[in-house]
Amino acid sequence: MKERKDRVAQMHLPAGYQMEHDPDDLWGDARVIVNIGPTHPAMHGALRMVAKLNGETIEKSYCEFGFTHRAKEKLGENRTFHNFIVYTDRLNYCSALINNVTYVRAVEKLMGVEVPDRCIWIRMICCELARITDHLICVGINAVDLGAFSFFLYGFHQREEAYTLIEKLCGARLTTSYPRVGGLMADAPEGFEKELKAWVLKTREVIDEMDELLTNNKIWLKRTVGISVFDKEKCLQYSYTGPNARAAGIDIDLRRDQPCMFYKDVEFDVPISQNGDVYDRYMIRIAEMRQSLNILSQCADRIKKGSIWTEDKRVRIPDKDIVHNTMEGMIYHFKFFMTGFDVPEGEAYTQFEAANGELGFYIVSKGSPRAHRMRIRGPSVWHYQGLTPMVEGEKIADMVAGLGSINVIAGELDR
Amino acid sequence: MGKDGSLGYLTTRLDDFVNWGRKNALWPLPFGTSCCGIEMMASLCSDYDMSRFGAEVVRFSPRQSDLLIVAGIINLKMAPVLKVVYDQMRDPKFVMSFGACASSGGIFNVYSVLQGIDTLIPVDVYVPGCPPAPEGLIHALMRLQDLVAKGETHSQKKLAAFKQKDA
Amino acid sequence: MDVRQPIATNGGDWLTKFGELWKKQLTQINESFGSSVQEVRMPPEYPTDVPIIYVQKESIIDVLKFLKEQPGFEYGFLADITATDEEIDPRFEVVYNLFSHQHKCRIRLKVRVSEGEEVPTATSIWLGANWAEREVFDMYGVKFKGHPDLRRILMDSRWVGHPLRKDYPLRGYQLFTDSEPVDPTLLE
Question: Does C66 touch chain A (CB under 8 A)?
Fold first, then answer.
């Protein structure tokens, strides 16, 4: 922001003219209250922001949400642990596989179930595929909001290719419900690693192309550099995690710091940036996609044939062979799905570095097939909370850039 | 023109012509709230390309659009908003209920979710799926085009009844 | 079936890694807040993944501040605030999940609170606690003393009852004919 006298000097006023009002305050005492959302092209999903404007500058604002509240936490207390897997898809629907995997890991942690290696590798592949699709949507939509439509089309095409891979794994595109407690719905098909590697190569090219298209674009730089800054101190105050926190210089990545699955055994870097503006968040996401591609190719190299199911009889879904051909098998199958399996008493908070940040499942079990408390800690809630202080004193058009860059997903926000 | 000077034949043909124009230039208002909104975006993108059906001009203003695609959950907090948006659209207007949540509440039969938008506004085409694939949206769009050409959508039927009463 | 199986480490060998650290921290907390710590539940004796410290509600803010700032603790990251409905007296437990960026470990604090009682707000320590506490109020009806803006957050402001309480029916719909208006007092 320029000093007042500089701004007055720029106005080419006649000599001797004394300006009475504050040049920053264009409208005197008049203020406009603008209601943005819940249905507005700039508000991703159903979010609402009410802003008091001085000219185009946001003076004060408040955010509202809950327009897609679907009571998933209440459902978690009313559905069996197995039933709840489908509801986790609808949390962050841009990266449903990460939610699935984190949820089943949370239940496995409570039960003390260990899964075989191949299952873990496939789950890691799922997580990284989902992370890339999520980031592609985030940077794509952010660019669309600022006027770069073709960039979005590049990303979306590659995302469709990723969905083809996911369809090969589980038959669904967006809402996958692929992992099961103690295993996976189905094994990866023959030759999956090869296709994955081809996709990785192609995606690397696409990301380079996207990078070239936008990163040094003058308009893009003007719209993003120094916009919606959220510095390190504020990030800690508002519990920012994931790419948004790393863009502000917080060196935290739960894949590295609290390693789970085989993240200890693969090599990847954690990109960090310092400025915490829209541009840095975009750059972090682009860099992270490259790291995810690295992880994917390592996974494709190291994945081996083997079982995808745990040997633990409590959670293992009986083989279809037994179910279809023996009476006992069918009764067991019926019991398994109708009453569910008991999860021993206890409580655990399971976290994972989801595409947006720390995704946590805090499950309290009282020894029944239904949870006593199913708390979902979605990163979007905490990110969206920071939007009000983030955009204060900025132009209303920059709010759109800020909101797009923190990637608020309504499903995860409202749960 | 008829012998008695009426325009009967011409006006019915004119209606057909107007409906033909309407069906090939549907301007959707994407009321995307959740997961289905992402699939709707996918069908607008290059891989599925809704513009082949003349329906790529997405307008977020209800006054500029004639096809309301309700994609995703409508909960009780959102329901009044949907009603206002629908009322703001000009006749003839068409409604597509995209996905299980919008059509019936889907797997979310809970305290906060509206059990189907047809309890609130008339729906012309339902698309099943949670979420439906982009092919589902394209199929539904083609079915809607058939309905529009025949003049059998809720809004057109209402208009026709109104005209008949007038005449 | 054994219902008291220990919690699996799930990849990270937490107990061996943080067991000593937690023990050290817990003795220090006991020294500083001896009378306000009601109960401590440690893994692996109790089936939980991280230690749970039950604190009296009057001193929760002091404990949180201590955990955030004291060297050797540095739980500077508020992962989550939530609550549970236990259906006994005291009815609710407010749960604070904390994470330490320095030590990469977690800890959990709990406050027991009866219906109608108030918990001091944590917004003075973390600004981000604002919405989490609003959500606890919205879903359970637990009030926070000194909270700057305690309104409903997920549900409509005209909603009656608190949906996540165990006695609220799963299908307790409440319909409204018009949407929530803009509240200009929030923009003062």
Answer: no
Interface residue of C135, C155, C182 to substitute, partner B, most B CBs within 10 Å? C155
Half-sphere exposure of A300 (CA within 13 A, CB side): 20
Q: Which domain holds residue B49?
A: 20-166
Two structure tokens written together for A202: 């192609």
Count of structural domains within chain A:
1
Domain of residue C76: give its range. Answer: 14-187
Whether C135 is covered by a domain: the verdict is yes
B112 touches chain C (CB under 8 A): yes
Q: Are A227 and A394 in contact (CB under 8 A)?
A: yes
A84 in B contact zone (CB under 8 Å)? no
Given a cut of 60, whether residue A155 has pLDDT beyond it is yes
Q: Is residue B11 part of a domain?
A: no
Per residue in C80-89, pLDDT tens? 899 998 888 8
Determine if residue A331 is left, alpha or beta; phi over 0 gives left, psi from -120 to 50 gives alpha, anything else beta. Answer: alpha
Shortest Cα–Cα distance, C7 to chain A (Å): 5
Give the number of domains in chain C: 1
Q: Which residue has the tokens 């995808």?
A: A308
- Whether the CB-CB separation of A45 and B33 falls below 8 Å is answered with yes
Contacts of B109 in chain C (CB under 8 A): 170-171
Sign of CA dihedral A263, A269, A273, A277: negative
* CB-based contact, C122 to chain A, within 8 Å: no
B14 in a structural domain = no
Quote the tokens at residue C81. Answer: 């605030």
pLDDT tens profile C4-42 = 444 444 444 566 677 788 888 888 888 888 788 888 888
Strands (E), chain B: 28-32, 67-71, 94-98, 125-127
Average pLDDT of the residues in A391-396? 86
CATH number assigned to the domain comprising residue C74: 3.30.460.80
Q: What is the ipTM of this complex?
A: 0.88
Q: Do A69 and B34 touch (CB under 8 A)?
A: no
C43-72 in b/e burial notation, b at 16+ Cβ within 10 A?
A: beebbbbbbbbbbebebbbebbebbbeeee
> Which of the four pLDDT bands, split at 50, 70 and 90, describes residue C95?
very high
Per-residue pLDDT, C9: 42
Find chains touching chain A: ≥3 CB pairs under 8 Å: B, C
**CA of C177 to nearest chain B CA: how many angstroms apart?**
6
Structure tokens at C135: 């959500």
**Residue span of the structural domain in which A130 resides:** 72-414
Q: What pLDDT does residue C10 have?
A: 44
Pick from A44, A87, A93 the residue to mutate for testing the B interface (most B CBs within 10 Å): A93
CATH number at B64 reads 3.40.50.12280
Residue A206 corresponds to which tokens in the numbers above?
A: 């696409």
Domain-embedded: residue C34: yes
Is C5 inside any structural domain?
Answer: no
pLDDT of A29 reads 66
**Residue A353, beta-bridge partner list:** A358
A97 within a domain of the structure (yes/no) = yes
CATH number at residue A97: 1.10.645.10
